[in-house]
Specification:
Layout lengths: L3 H12 L3 H19 L5 H4 L4 H14 L11 H24 L4 H25 L3 H8 L4 H7 L5 H19 L2
């Protein structure tokens, strides 16, 4: 079970120069991040890159900038790594797109699909600001019991209620 408080302790130790804590942090978050990342690489890149390689790149970038990271809430580090992962994928998409020479109509159709996907992603990301509980539940698949422990809630029901409120805000924001 993933414990954000353990992550916070390891981050603090790592920032103080503890190399072993740095290694332990990477080892601790790797399985959760890898599990989340499976199936999230677009089909256009799926045959070109390996999920575990992108997760490893994500961890390297995240650990390299660890001193700049400020955790305001439990689960923020996973959300931070998630953002780095998405940025890595977007960069690879841009790079691959630059290499490809497609027929004009196929290229036009791809741009429209990509544009729609990016607009939806931007709306989703904006709505998720301050909504780490949604990321923990939806993106990382944590149970309400795990979320209650991670966010130091009194009960599983308290976590469920906070999630439902955050989800309602998200839905209101994107006007579904």
């Amino acid at each position: 079970m993933f414990d954000p408080s353990k992550t916070a302790i390891l981050i603090e130790q790592s920032k103080q120069g503890d190399k072993r804590a740095n290694e332990q942090l990477a080892e601790y978050v790797y399985p959760t991040l890898l599990s989340w990342a499976h199936g999230r690489i677009p089909r256009t890149l799926d045959s070109l890159i390996d999920t575990s390689d992108v997760v490893q790149e994500t961890l390297v970038k995240g650990m390299h900038k660890l001193n700049d990271f400020q955790s305001l809430r439990p689960g923020a580090f996973l959300a931070y790594l998630r953002r780095i992962f998405i940025n890595n994928i977007n960069q690879k998409l841009r790079s691959e797109k630059a290499k490809q020479s497609l027929e004009e109509d196929h290229l036009h159709q791809s741009k429209l699909i990509l544009k729609d996907d990016i607009e939806e992603l931007v709306i989703y990301e904006a709505a998720l600001l301050e909504q780490d509980i949604i990321i923990l539940r939806v993106e990382f698949g944590m149970s309400f019991n795990e979320i209650a422990l991670a966010l130091e809630k009194n009960s599983e029901d308290a976590a469920r209620m906070q999630f439902n409120r955050a989800l309602a805000k998200l839905l209101k924001f994107i006007k579904l």
